[in-house]
Structures are given as structure tokens and as C-alpha cells.
TrEMBL record:
Its EC number is 1.-.-.-. It is an enzyme of class 1 (oxidoreductase). It comes from Arcicella rigui. It comes from the Bacteria. This is Gluconate 2-dehydrogenase subunit 3 family protein. Pfam families: Gluconate_2-dh3.
């Protein structure tokens, strides 16, 4: 293969890559503009609106509103639903769905009312009972929801912009520090 043929092949490859890049930049915005709340719904996770309300109250119990917004106000419940639907396997999704039912059943058994109807102390007691339960699915549900609530809260825009201090490099370096013997 001569140098002339090699240059032609490189030009063809460059032109092909350039055409793909231009085509992608033209198509991507039209594709992204088609996104809406309806097109981004949880298709793999079947949760009723009453269960969504229940989840919102669970996250409000885990991180309640004080002088700063709580997990419910920052949308941690929506974060949890998105994470469960998009990032977890079918088994975890089933544990999550059964856990929502278990929370309400336990609240009714303990207090005669649904979890949403309970006051904050009763809600906290229900969650504490679930955390010490012998049922591994109940414990797994609570562990999953607690972890995702904390994650959703910490990555929310409010926390990231108002409560966290940005440091370009984590930690500090002190090169010359006297050492005590």
C-alpha cells in the first residue's frame, strides 16, 4: 500500500467520522426535545398514586423538614422511584413493592390507621419496628429506602448549592508540618 492510498483511507475515515458527528448533533436535540414527563414515566415499576404518597411520607419521616427542607420537599421520593425503576433488578423492585404494602399493614396493626394517617412519632415507631423485624424483606426494604433517601437528599440541588462547601480537591495538603517526638 502506497502513502497516497493510506492518505485516501485516512481522509475517508475522517470524513465518515465527521459526518457521524454532525448527524449526531443534529439528531440529538430533536430526540431530547421529545422528552416529557409522560415519556419518562416508570414503565417497569407499577406503583399506585397512594403508594407514591406513602413513599413521600416515609422519606419525610426519615429526613424531616426542620429549618432546612426535608427529603420530601427536595423530591427524594421521586429520586427513589426513578432509581428503583431504572437501576435495580426485578427482585429488588419486588421487595420494594412488597415493602410499601408491609409498611401500611404494620401501621394498621400497630395503630389502627394507615401510615399516612399516623403522626410523626407513630410513623417513626413503625419504621423502627421494621428495622428490627425478623422478616428479611422488611429489613431489606427499609435499608434500601433509607439509603436511597439519603442519596437523593444529598445530591439534591438545594443541598449541593446551599449546604455543601465546594472544594476543588478533597482534603488539604500541608507539606511542611513539624513532627512531635
Amino acid at each position: 500500500m502506497s502513502i497516497n492510498q493510506s492518505n485516501k483511507m485516512q481522509r475517508r475515515s475522517a470524513i465518515k467520522n465527521l459526518a457521524l458527528t454532525i448527524g449526531g448533533t443534529i439528531v440529538l436535540p430533536t430526540w431530547a426535545n421529545a422528552w416529557s414527563k409522560e415519556t419518562l414515566q416508570n414503565h417497569s415499576l407499577s406503583i399506585t398514586s397512594s403508594q407514591e404518597t406513602l413513599l413521600a411520607e416515609i422519606v419525610a419521616t426519615i429526613i424531616p423538614k426542620t429549618d432546612t427542607p426535608g427529603a420530601k420537599e427536595l423530591g427524594a421520593d421521586k429520586f427513589i422511584l426513578r432509581m428503583i425503576a431504572d437501576c435495580y433488578d426485578k427482585k429488588s423492585q419486588d421487595i420494594f413493592a412488597k415493602g410499601l404494602i408491609s409498611v401500611d399493614e404494620l401501621a394498621k396493626k400497630e395503630n389502627g390507621k394507615t401510615f399516612v394517617e399516623n403522626d410523626s412519632k407513630q410513623r417513626l415507631e413503625v419504621l423502627k419496628k421494621m428495622s428490627t423485624s425478623q422478616n428479611s424483606d422488611e429489613k431489606g426494604f427499609l435499608h434500601l429506602v433509607k439509603g436511597l433517601t439519603i442519596d437523593g437528599y444529598l445530591v439534591s440541588e438545594y443541598v449541593m448549592t446551599n449546604l455543601r462547601i465546594y472544594e476543588m480537591v478533597p482534603g488539604r495538603y500541608h507539606g511542611c508540618v513539624p513532627i512531635k517526638k
